[in-house]
């Protein structure tokens, strides 16, 4: 997992295809779906899909450590839980390349350094905009924050609907998958986990 967090996964791909090759691949999939690539409505679709992949999978070219490296000293007088909850995200499952729609709740206990709040949401974006399993994404977000900020603990919960389970296959709409990763005090102290859960559910 470290390799996924520390490096740009795109570096591991020795040669990215050209744009023309990517557009040709889209044409192939359109034909596989049963459509006619020569009809007018599809003329620009390969170009649009290739451009949209650049955006939807932009996380491969972004380094979470760079984003999380911009910290500032602990805010005087505050050393308690910092929780950003209900961060919406879209990802794609690595099995079917179909959307995962969810929200992330992320907390940490400062250990000397504090993150800009937007950086927490940026980390969700970086890992979300890659092909994922929900478990891996949850662990990656927690590990990236833990490794760079070195707080007293990190808690990550992701709640998501997998459209590969809703639109196809078993076709169960509306089910939610919940995954959690706890480090440090959140892992060792059940009381801290309860506080995290209570704050997420809005009763804190
Ligand atoms: N653990 C985990 N599984 C996932 C995630 N996203 C999708 N899956 C599952 O990955 C599995 C892939 O199963 P396969 O049997 O190889 O593929 P499949 O024949 O398309 O499976 P079905 O979806 O059951 O039709 C399915 O059970 C999906 O529900 C995820 O984030 N985490
Ligand atoms: Zn899937």
UniProtKB/TrEMBL annotation:
NCBIfam families xref list: folE, PRK09347.1-2, PRK09347.1-3
Q: Which keywords does this Swiss-Prot/TrEMBL entry list? A: GTP-binding, Hydrolase, Metal-binding, Nucleotide-binding, One-carbon metabolism, Zinc
**Pathway in which this enzyme or protein is active:** Cofactor biosynthesis; 7,8-dihydroneopterin triphosphate biosynthesis; 7,8-dihydroneopterin triphosphate from GTP: step 1/1
Molecular function (GO) terms listed? GTP binding; GTP cyclohydrolase I activity; zinc ion binding
Q: EC no.?
A: 3.5.4.16
In the UniProt record, does the keyword Cell membrane occur?
no
- Which family does the UniProt entry place this protein in? Belongs to the GTP cyclohydrolase I family.
Q: How does it assemble?
A: Toroid-shaped homodecamer, composed of two pentamers of five dimers. Homopolymer.
Question: Record's superkingdom?
Answer: Bacteria
InterPro entries associated with the record: GTP-CH-I_C/QueF, GTP-CH-I_N, GTP_CycHdrlase_I, GTP_CycHdrlase_I_CS, GTP_CycHdrlase_I_dom
Q: Which residues bind Zn(2+)?
A: 93, 96, 164
Q: What is this protein called?
A: GTP cyclohydrolase 1
Q: What EC class is this?
A: hydrolase
Provide the reaction this enzyme catalyses. GTP + H2O = 7,8-dihydroneopterin 3'-triphosphate + formate + H(+)
Q: Which residues form the GTP cyclohydrolase I domain?
A: 23-201
Report if keyword Chaperone is assigned. Answer: no
One GO cellular component assignment for this chain's record is: cytoplasm
GO BP annotations of the record are:
one-carbon metabolic process; tetrahydrobiopterin biosynthetic process; tetrahydrofolate biosynthetic process
């Amino acid at each position: 997992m470290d390799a996924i967090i520390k490096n740009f996964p795109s570096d591991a791909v020795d040669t990215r295809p050209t744009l023309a090759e990517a557009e040709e691949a889209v044409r192939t999939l359109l034909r596989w779906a049963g459509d006619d690539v020569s009809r007018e409505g599809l003329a620009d679709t390969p170009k649009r899909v290739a451009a949209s992949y650049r955006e939807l999978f932009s996380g491969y070219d972004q380094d979470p450590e760079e984003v999380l490296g911009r910290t500032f000293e602990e805010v005087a007088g505050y050393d308690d839980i910092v929780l950003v909850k209900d961060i919406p995200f879209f990802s794609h499952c690595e099995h079917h390349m179909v959307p995962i729609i969810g929200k992330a709740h992320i907390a940490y206990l400062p250990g000397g350094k504090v993150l800009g709040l937007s950086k927490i949401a940026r980390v969700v974006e970086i890992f979300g905009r890659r092909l994922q399993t929900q478990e891996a994404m949850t662990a990656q977000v927690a590990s990236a924050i833990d490794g760079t900020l070195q707080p007293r603990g990190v808690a990550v919960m992701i709640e998501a609907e997998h459209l590969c389970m809703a639109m196809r296959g078993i076709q169960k709409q509306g089910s939610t998958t919940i995954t959690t990763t706890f480090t440090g005090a959140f892992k060792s102290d059940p009381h801290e986990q309860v506080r995290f859960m209570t704050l997420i559910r809005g009763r804190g």
